[in-house]
Amino acid sequence: MTEDSQRNFRSVYYEKVGFRGVEEKKSLEILLKDDRLDIEKLCTFSQRFPLPSMYRALVWKVLLGILPPHHESHAQVMMYRKEQYCDVLHALKVVRFVSDATPQVEVYLHMYQLESGKLPRSPSFPLEPEDEVFLAIAKAVEEMVEDSVDCYWIIRCFVNQLNNKYRESLPQLPKAFEQYLNLEDSRLLSHLKTCSALSRLPYDLWFKRCFAGCLPESSLQRVWDKVVSGSCKILVFVAVEILLTFKIKVMALNSAEKITKFLENIPQDSSDAIVSKAIDLWHKHCGTPVHSA
């Protein structure tokens, strides 16, 4: 029996006895023991499998560039990251832009604004659309990451990835959504068009916020594993699968407003199944992904 067939046999056996992912976890642990972490292999692993929760923050920090590939530098680099965090926070407190009473996600927003040269003249200034996106993502990461320094850096670098790496890809996602929904269920797409709902779907929630505020933490982080490791296209298939899952409900609604309102507040108990099916759909249409958008 070849090494691959042995591995596949073990994977099937582990899944049958309730230890799904045991082999994948071992594979990741081997990757994480390398003296110089292989970014390419970590990306590929994250694209193919869900990250175990105990390693997710570490892998995200490496893939987002918060930590370097070399293990021996991690402690020192995180010390610098913490010092920078404390310096920026101190500066905001000195100019009385934040206080101990400021909600933590707003603190993160003002830190990000200060570092990117976009701090408004007053904290009472109305929020820009990009600030709303930042806050939604920050609230989601805050649910996933306990340490405030890690939390800020993951939010900061995740948002920068959306604004830079995916700047040209994200505006194309609504068109891709229409294309793949047509392949999966053309009748459902026709219904959306008939109701004039297609252009009014919650694309900002789905694609700009990457489902932050739409999916619960356990489901969201499985989607973000793919986004962090190089594919924003997974977002399209989550959106398609939401429509397929709630097809009966959507087909029964006859106005764009009702359809959009429902899709902005989908039932949370279906989210894990939706994400699993969305990942299968992504593999079906895009093959076995490597780390490309």
How many β-strand stretches?
Answer: 0
Mean pLDDT: 91
pLDDT < 50 runs, ≥5 residues: 1-19
Order of helices and strands: HHHHHHHHHHHHHHHH
Broad CATH class of the largest domain: Mainly Alpha
- CATH topology type of the largest domain: Helicase, Ruva Protein, domain 3
Q: How many angstroms separate the termini?
A: 36 Å
CATH architecture field of the largest domain: Orthogonal Bundle
Rg value: 21 Å
What fraction, in percent, of the residue positions are helical? 55-70%
The helix tally amounts to: 16
**What is the beta-strand fraction?**
under 5%
Subcellular location: Cytoplasm, Cytosol; Cytoplasmic vesicle; Lysosome membrane
Keywords: Cytoplasm, Cytoplasmic vesicle, GTPase activation, Lysosome, Membrane
Main location: cytoplasm
GO cellular component, one term: TSC1-TSC2 complex
Characterise the protein shown here:
The chain is mainly α and 293 residues long. It has two domains: 15-164, Ypt/Rab-GAP domain of gyp1p, domain 2 (Helicase, Ruva Protein, domain 3, Orthogonal Bundle); 170-286, Cyclin A, domain 1, CATH 1.10.472.80. The protein contains 16 helices and no strands. It has helices spanning 3-16, 22-32, 39-48, 53-63, 74-94, 104-115, 129-144, 148-163, 173-184, 186-194, 203-208, 217-228, 234-245, 247-252, 256-264, 271-286. The radius of gyration is 21 Å and the shape is globular. InterPro entries: Rab-GAP-TBC_dom, Rab-GAP_TBC_sf, TBC1D7, TBC1D7_dom2. It is found in: Cytoplasm, Cytosol; Cytoplasmic vesicle; Lysosome membrane. This is TBC1 domain family member 7. Residues 50-231 form the Rab-GAP TBC domain. One of its GO terms (cellular component) is lysosomal membrane.
